[in-house]
Amino acid sequence: MTKTIDIEDLNEAQALKELARLAQILLQANDDYYQADAPQLTDAEYDRLKRRNLAIESRFPDLKRLDSPTEQIGAPISDGFSKAVHSVRMLSLGNAFDDDDVADFDKSVRKYLGLGTDSALAYTAEPKIDGLSLSLRYERGKLVQAATRGDGEVGENVTANARTIADIPQVLQGAPDILEVRGEVYMTHTDFAALNKRQVEKGEKTFVNPRNTAAGALRQLDARITAERALHFFAYAWGELSEPLANSQIKALAQLGEYGFSINPLTRLCAGPDEMIAQYHLIEEQRATLGYDIDGVVYKVEDLALQARLGFRSTTPRWAIAHKFPAELAWTRLEAIDIQVGRTGALSPVARLTPVTVGGVVVSNATLHNEDYITGRDAKGNEIRDGKDIRVGDWVQVYRAGDVIPKVADVDLSKRAKTAKPYVFPTKCPQCESDAIREEGDAVRRCTGGVICPAQIGEKLKHFVSRAAFDIDGLGAKQVVQFYNDGWIKEPADIFTLSERYGNGMQQLRNREGWGDKSADKLFAAIEDKRTIPLGRLIFALGLRHVGEAASNMLATHYGSWDSLEQAVTDAATLEGPAWDDLIGIDGVGAVMATSLVTGFAQKAERAAIDRLVAHLNVQDAARPDVADSPVVGKTVVFTGTLEKMTRAEAKARAEALGAKVSGSVSARTDLLVAGPGAGSKAKKAADLGIETLDEDGWLALIGAL
Hints:
Blueprint: H1 12-35, H2 43-59, E1 83-85, E2 95-96, H3 99-113, E3 123-129, E4 132-139, E5 142-148, E6 154-156, H4 159-162, E7 178-186, H5 189-201, H6 210-218, H7 223-228, E8 232-241, H8 249-258, E9 268-270, H9 273-286, E10 294-301, H10 304-310, E11 320-324, E12 329-341, E13 347-358, E14 361-367, H11 371-375, E15 395-400, E16 406-411, E17 436-437, E18 446-447, H12 454-464, H13 477-485, H14 498-502, H15 507-510, H16 517-529, E19 532-534, H17 535-541, H18 549-559, H19 562-571, H20 578-585, H21 591-602, H22 604-614, E20 618-620, E21 636-640, H23 648-657, E22 661-663, E23 672-675, H24 681-689, E24 692-694, H25 696-702
Parallel strand pairs: 2-11, 19-20, 21-22, 21-23, 23-24
Antiparallel strand pairs: 1-6, 3-9, 3-10, 4-5, 4-7, 7-8, 10-11, 12-13, 12-15, 13-14, 15-16, 17-18
């Protein structure tokens, strides 16, 4: 049997192979469960593999597959059912794992809506049922379709099966002409135990857990089998409506109850985070006595008009979040602390543990974050863990939160050896012995070796050829490291001179084991193909600190071309002046990212390497949105003061959609200032510069939104 490698020990090539293996296993598990109703993996093992997949993706985001299990909403429908298209997508929920996450959720909602901390904002809190999502469509009061979530857009038509569930009304009195009721199908513990007892008596297989059993029962091709499984249904939401149910979440749920649906009795209205968390703990205390499975509490903004304003992200609503029950914990011995060096030179401490099972997974490594975390303090010097430091030999508590990467949470001082010494964080890079410095305000110590550091240059090259960067067919992480070790590639530009430097299409490669004429020619052709590269991909491929894929595309859209970007960043080298103001004025680009970008271009060796690379490329200008009729296309707009008819986030999003550049500061390059009540220095500066200024109504009239 092949030994499973700890995530922290995986190299990029191993991670790529492991993600492929996990995708195959999880896809087969989905087929077994969703289509064959015969799961081969236990629920715990399935969750463990999915968490492992997510952890690898978190560590190697550039290797994330297009068919990643973490990006799927639900699962593809079974061939045994007809398709049912959801008129309103069925999305998943974001997760919260502690009280701070709940508070952050409340803050994010308030920030988006432009509400202060003193403004009233109510939420509902309800148990998160561990079952199968189902959407019920009623037309003129009659049930006409029941559909599983499927992939969020298309589900399985399980109408005949849903009609066998007693909690699902067949006819509604007084309902809107079109009403889609959404909720969760589940099985009680009592019914599950009785079903398994009958299975044993008949000499047939028993079922794994109530959730899997309920899901399998609802997907039976023979509705008579579904009827035998004693399924239940809680309604908690809705999709398409011909007319509103109410103006609030709690009233809408009450209306569904009036129509005959079961509404969870533990649903409560909460005035804010404190009451939400109190209800969470109240539900948690009753968890074992409910008689059905739940795995957390769902919070939703109570006002439906505010829900509509908040809207949705790509896969989750902004107005709701699932507060999951605590991660599983375990205590074990800390055997050693190792230091890993990342591609940006960051020195990351890793705890080597005596192996321990946490939530069905054997954990032997855990992150220690940074040197402050080891000393028992955060980056601002405040105490964490009551100021307890972490030492080799300590008895430590390990937990696995929603991001599934194990962490050291606490230390048992009563078991600490008298000879244990405080851990001294290294000031030299363990890879190249260069000084490892910590910049002011930075929580991480970094190697200054740059290209002479084996850890950094290798990681930089792997990042360069990653999927979101140059993505050269045949030159992945494994190959680029081999070429680097052989001395064929020392920097990115060398990739594009391979053939000419070694002559005859690089005969050394053709003679190498695993390579031949076809594979070598294919590689050289792929390299030639990548000489033409979109601007956003090139920026991301440079591997500059803080400049990720989204930021790279944002910079590309703002500057449009490589020459414009290069000139602007060069002009901003002094961290002041118009070019600097323009750079940090880009919505989403702060001083930290801007400084990293400018610093990267200002380093002589790094800049020379970039110049050598670009000399071999045809960099494509960034595509611009089709906003030919927009009155603000190409203009730089600044918003200041209080906007009364929309939040700042909404105003920025609308302006950018119309082709405008939204800046956070006023400069000579600003074309338009939109000033609400309370506008201060920005309005004065705009007046001094003669910049056109509009109030909110004027802005809305300009863009045709009045």
